[in-house]
Write a structure and sequence with these properties.
458 residues, alpha/beta, Rossmann fold, UDP-N-acetylmuramoyl-L-alanine:D-glutamate ligase, Protein-Tyrosine Phosphatase, Chain A, 3 domains, six-stranded parallel beta sheet
Length: 458
């Protein structure tokens, strides 16, 4: 449950010097996170203003109706507003290197995240999940496990509902997906259990290098809770702290949670205990077995019943745009993995197949080195169809190791795949790139793929 307002204000003052009488707060970013912060600030009686670099943020009209007296600055960051700020609550979509933010911090303003505000507002367990790939799936899996175990659970953060909006409903437990951008501005989160699922090149347009990106991810382990560690990822493996309770998972070796054989059948295992047959996990790809093991480890760390957790897994159908089977048409299976917005996600998807697939990839590479895709594409793809802004970078990296086809849009990409696919093939949309060069978001890209695939039936 959330705490009463007096206790929350005391925690905010102790940790950040935030006080309704003296603090002047700027909420930076008028998106879903910024709106949740605004309602939180209003409820506690803070003086605050909102600023957004966009001329017309999509949520602006609704906000004006709800809070007509709140100062809002759009079309750029207003330096005069920043000059008087004592605290900045910066949405994860905004870089901390923005000149106005850097200057305000130099003048003494403190940066606080919505996750900090949330952590100061609850007195029930928080589970924190981050990583380059799989975090939305694991977050949702664990939320479903908690429900099956009879818990009232709030699930959100970087996924779906902003953390502060979760406070509107009573909960016994909160499960948060956290991005590197959220973690880099969060200071007081002490999750009862936390994991970094994996580390691969992502968001290098915002982080200096993969080492600094990994360091931001590692901050999810700040505090005293149980560390859930992926033994198959060497970068994550090095994050283990000897002073902490650790649970490990692996799909390649022995670990606390792993895959084992009993009488010729593969099982999800907890040490020597058989939890459930792997074949009963209704998700495509071996990497989803790793996601299930991570969720089981986190659930065990917070005391969820093993039978209830497995019951939840057996009916878990996965998330939209994540290894989602769209159709089987004339013996060809079409799979939408549009959420694969970085190299690691594409690699994980490809490695989950036992036979070669036709891959659709491309988009905005976000500064990543496309050469890292080459080995797995050479091993797992029979051909590749490329589209989007950085298709040329992928083509150059592949250097003719597999047949490559160029497409200017999704309809053309799907048609090319339909022309070259044989019965029994799988066509996988797993772009390894962001979508914003051609689409509103990865959901739009996935929807366009599904529409084009189903158009083959006409």
């Amino acid at each position: 449950m959330s705490m009463d307002n007096i206790a929350i204000l005391r925690a905010l003052n102790t940790n950040f010097g935030l006080d309704p009488k003296s603090s002047k707060v700027i909420v930076v970013g008028l998106g879903n996170t910024g709106i949740s912060v605004a309602y939180f600030m209003q409820k506690l009686g803070f003086n605050f203003a909102i600023t957004d670099s966009r001329d017309k943020p999509p949520l602006e009209d609704a906000f004006f109706q709800a809070m007509p007296d709140t100062p809002v600055f759009t079309g750029g960051f207003d330096n005069s507003a920043f000059q008087v700020a004592t605290h900045l609550v910066v949405s994860p979509g905004v870089s901390l290197l923005e000149k106005a933010i850097v200057k305000a911090v130099a003048n003494g303003a403190k940066i606080v995240s919505d996750i900090d505000l949330f952590a100061c507002s609850v007195n029930v367990p928080i589970v924190a999940i981050t990583g380059s790939n799989g975090k939305s799936t694991v977050t949702t899996m664990l939320g479903e496990m908690a429900k099956y175990a009879g818990k009232r659970v709030g699930v959100g953060g970087n996924l779906g509902t902003p953390a502060l909006a979760l406070l509107e409903h009573p909960a016994d437990l909160f499960v948060l997906e956290l991005s590197s951008f959220q973690l880099e501005r969060t200071h007081v989160l002490n999750a009862v259990a936390a994991t970094v699922l994996n580390i691969s090149a992502d968001h290098l347009d915002r982080h200096d290098d993969i080492a600094s990106y990994a360091q931001e991810k590692q901050s999810v382990f700040r505090g005293t809770g149980v560390m859930v560690i992926n033994m198959d990822d060497p970068v994550v493996k090095d994050m283990i702290l000897s002073s902490r309770t650790v649970l490990t998972f692996s799909i390649k070796e022995s670990a606390d949670f792993c895959i084992g054989f009993k009488e010729g059948v593969e099982y999800l295992m907890y040490n020597d205990e058989s939890l459930m047959p792997l074949a009963e996990l209704p998700l495509e790809g071996r990497h989803n077995a790793a996601n299930a093991l991570a969720a089981l480890a986190l659930g065990t760390a917070i005391g969820l019943d093993a039978v209830a957790m497995c019951d939840a897994l057996k009916v878990f159908k996965g998330l939209d745009h994540r290894m989602q089977r769209v159709a089987e048409i004339r013996g060809v299976t079409w799979v939408n993995d549009s959420k694969a917005t970085n190299i690691g996600a594409c690699v994980a998807a490809l490695e989950g197949y036992d036979r070669k697939v036709i891959l659709i990839a491309g988009g905005d590479a976000k500064g990543a080195d496309m050469n890292e895709l080459t080995p797995v594409i050479k091993e797992k793809a029979k051909s590749v169809v490329l589209m989007g802004k950085d298709a040329g970078l992928i083509k150059q990296a592949l250097n003719g190791c597999v047949p490559v086809y160029d497409a200017s849009n999704m309809v053309q990409a799907v048609q090319i795949c339909a022309d070259i696919a044989d019965m029994g093939d799988s066509v996988l949309l797993s772009p390894a790139c962001a979508s914003l060069d051609q689409y509103k978001n990865y959901q739009d890209r996935g929807n366009q793929f599904s529409k084009a695939v189903l158009g083959l039936l006409k």
